[in-house]
Structure formats: C-alpha cells, structure tokens
C-alpha cells in the first residue's frame, strides 16, 4: 500500500470516537484534510489531541469511525504498514547510531536495499541542512539539530501523512521560533500532509493552514487561523485562543448588547431572543480609550516592549485589559486615572449565551 500512496495525499478522519474505561476521550470528530495541508490540533491537556494522533498512527484502535488516506481506509493496517511518519516530543533517536543511520532506520525496517538507504538518508539530511553531521552521534547534537534528525527520519520513508506530537515542547523560546520556521519550510518543500499537535495557540496560529480546536474530546471549530481568531465559533474558542475580555450584558432588540458595565455595544451573536443574558468577548486590541464612552478607572499600566497593557475597572466591578502602541518617551497613565473606553470599530465583539 505504501508504494501506492505518495506524500501530499488527503486525510479523512470520519466521525472518530474513542472510549476508554467508560470515558469518551474523542467524540465523533470529523476532519477532512487536503493533501499538502499543515493542520494544527489545538486544545488544553486532556482534550483528545494525542489520542487522535495515536489513532492515526495505529497505536490505538478507535471505538468507532474511519481513518482514510487518499480515499483508502487504513484502519486494518498495523503501525509499521501505515503511510504515516511521526516525530515525538522526545525525538526518540537511537543513541548508539550515527545521524545517518538514525535517518535510514525506517528504510532499513522496510527492507530497502542498503545503497538506497544511504541515498535516501543523505537526501533527507540535505533537506534539513544537516548533511555535514551525518557521522555524528545524537549526543553531539543540539536540541534543534536532534529535532531535525527526527524529522528527517520520519520523512525518509516518504509518508503520506506526517504527525508532529508537541515537537517544540523541549526547546527554549528563541530556538522554538527558529524551528517552527524551519519545519514549515521543510514541510512545504516535501509537500507532506502534516498534523501538528500543540497546546500553544501562537504556534498553531502561526504555522497552520487550518486549526482544529478541541475541547473535552469534541471539535469546537475547524477553520483558517484568522477565522478562528476573528470569528470564534464558541465561547470556549474565544476564551482559549488569544487574550479576551469577558463582559456581561443583555441583548437588546436591535442585536446590540447593553453592558452591565455601562454603554451599548454592537456584537456578532448567534440567534438569541431579545432580553437574553449574554457574555460579550472583546480582545484587548479591540478596545481603545475615547471620550464620552464607558467610564472606567485605570488600575494598572504595564509597558511590554512596543505596546502598553492597561487594566481598567468598570462601575459594576468588572475589569478589562486594553493594549495600545507605546510611544517612545511617553509616560504611562497613572493608576487611579479616570478614563473612558470604546471599541476600536464595529463588529469587534462576539456574544454568547451566558
């Protein structure tokens, strides 16, 4: 089957469900993924991300549903016959093998001729820009280099699907960003359909073509990163992805919301009857200081490089964070300052049933 399936093939998770000891860890998740896409599975610990990856890899057998690659079901195949490569968080390199032998391991396990193993390993090491380190042992490599070796090993068998299970968790912040850029570059060059598992929202939003947001085993939203951020499908997505202010209010006749904090705000909202109690979600960058709007008291101003984060308290006791560009040399507003707050423009707020 591997010979029939090449990189960049479509992947379909068709109503995947998994139950363990009476607990549903994945609940009827469907993802229709195009060939060559990089998809992020995003959500908190315990939401079902890793279980889905283990099901795709054949390490766990789902309770219900199908996994299909290029229109063919692969559920009956054992892990070593699936057209899937996986990079674990720990990298799992063999410490006694050279870099080249680590990369060639998957080819050797599939019975590839020795000469083809050497050629395939060399080609993958050039792709990840580590050809000059082919003879080194893993212990002589940095964390980022070890990660690239693990990626080269996974790609050497030309998988239709590449699974990346929290691959950046062991790296420091600066190296993590470098490796995100590098893996995105390699994924585009290889053209491999890729699933990235992460709980880091910035990682998902910056790397993925589409993001699948999971909560308690259920799929909350599956959409491009900008849509997930700008048009969240649920209160959970709005709260989990990015920073958000949550204010309470009552839905008015015209679809606007009368905030308990004071003032009226236009919102994007599901079909709810007038008079419904709602939670209004606004991101810090969607609020600004303006005259004659919602009165508030400034409690804190925190300069963070090019921006300033303010925390204000409204008359009903609720609080909100506001970000604005920091002007060079400008003194921050002092705590206790009386201010007025408005939205930065129409359609910035989302409202959900309280």
Shape: elongated
Q: Provide the helix percentage.
A: 10-25%
Rg calculated over all Cα atoms: 25 Å
* Category by helix and strand content: alpha+beta
List descriptors.
354 residues, alpha+beta, Rossmann fold, OB fold (Dihydrolipoamide Acetyltransferase, E2P), 2 domains, 6-stranded mixed sheet, 5-stranded mixed beta barrel, 8 helices, 19 strands, 24% helix, 36% strand, elongated, disordered N terminus
Task: Tell me what the structure shows.
- By secondary structure, the chain is an alpha+beta fold.
- The protein has two domains: 2-237, Rossmann fold, CATH 3.40.50.300; 248-353, Nucleic acid-binding proteins (OB fold (Dihydrolipoamide Acetyltransferase, E2P)), CATH 2.40.50.140.
- Residues 1-5 have low confidence and may be disordered.
- 24% of the residues lie in helices and 36% in strands.
- Strand 11 and strand 12 form a beta hairpin.
- The protein has helices at 49-57, 99-109, 114-127, 143-156, 173-190, 201-207, 225-230, 235-240; strands at 11-20, 23-33, 38-42, 64-69, 72-73, 84-87, 161-165, 193-198, 210-215, 218-223, 245-251, 256-259, 264-269, 277-282, 287-304, 307-314, 319-325, 338-343, 349-353.
Summarize the structure.
The chain has 354 residues and is α+β, with helices and mostly antiparallel strands. It has helices at 49-57, 99-109, 114-127, 143-156, 173-190, 201-207, 225-230, 235-240; strands spanning 11-20, 23-33, 38-42, 64-69, 72-73, 84-87, 161-165, 193-198, 210-215, 218-223, 245-251, 256-259, 264-269, 277-282, 287-304, 307-314, 319-325, 338-343, 349-353.
């Amino acid at each position: 089957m591997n010979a029939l399936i090449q990189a960049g093939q479509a992947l379909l998770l068709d109503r995947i469900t998994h139950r363990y000891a009476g607990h549903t860890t994945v609940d009827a998740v469907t993802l229709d993924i195009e060939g060559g896409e990089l998809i992020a599975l995003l959500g908190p610990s315990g939401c079902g991300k890793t279980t889905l990856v283990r099901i795709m890899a054949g390490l766990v057998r789902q309770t219900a549903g199908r996994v299909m690659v290029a229109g063919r079901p692969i559920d009956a195949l054992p892990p070593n016959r699936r057209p899937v490569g996986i990079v674990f968080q720990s990298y799992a390199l063999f410490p006694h093998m050279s870099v080249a032998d680590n990369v060639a391991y998957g080819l050797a396990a599939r019975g590839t001729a020795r000469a083809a193993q050497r050629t395939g390993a060399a080609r993958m090491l050039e792709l990840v820009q580590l050809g000059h380190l082919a003879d080194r042992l893993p212990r002589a490599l940095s964390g980022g280099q070890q990660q690239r070796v693990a990626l080269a090993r996974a790609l050497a068998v030309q998988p239709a699907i590449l699974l990346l299970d929290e691959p950046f968790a062991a790296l420091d912040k600066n190296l993590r960003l470098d490796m995100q850029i590098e893996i995105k570059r390699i994924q585009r060059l290889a053209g491999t359909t890729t699933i990235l598992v992460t709980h880091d929202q910035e990682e998902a939003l910056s790397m993925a073509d589409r993001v699948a947001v999971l909560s308690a085993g259920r799929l909350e939203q599956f959409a491009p990163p900008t849509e997930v951020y700008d048009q969240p499908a649920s209160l959970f997505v709005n709260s989990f992805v990015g920073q958000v202010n949550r204010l309470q209010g009552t839905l008015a006749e015209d679809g606007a919301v009368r905030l308990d904090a004071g003032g009226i705000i236009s919102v994007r909202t599901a079909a709810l009857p007038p008079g419904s109690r709602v939670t209004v979600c606004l991101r810090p960058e969607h609020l600004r200081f303006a005259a004659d709007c919602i009165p508030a008291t400034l409690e804190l101003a925190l300069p963070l490089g090019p921006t300033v984060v303010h925390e204000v308290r409204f008359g009903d006791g609720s609080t909100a964070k506001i970000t604005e560009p920091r002007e060079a040399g400008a003194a921050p507003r002092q705590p206790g300052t009386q201010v007025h707050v408005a939205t930065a423009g129409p359609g910035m707020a989302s409202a959900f049933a309280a």
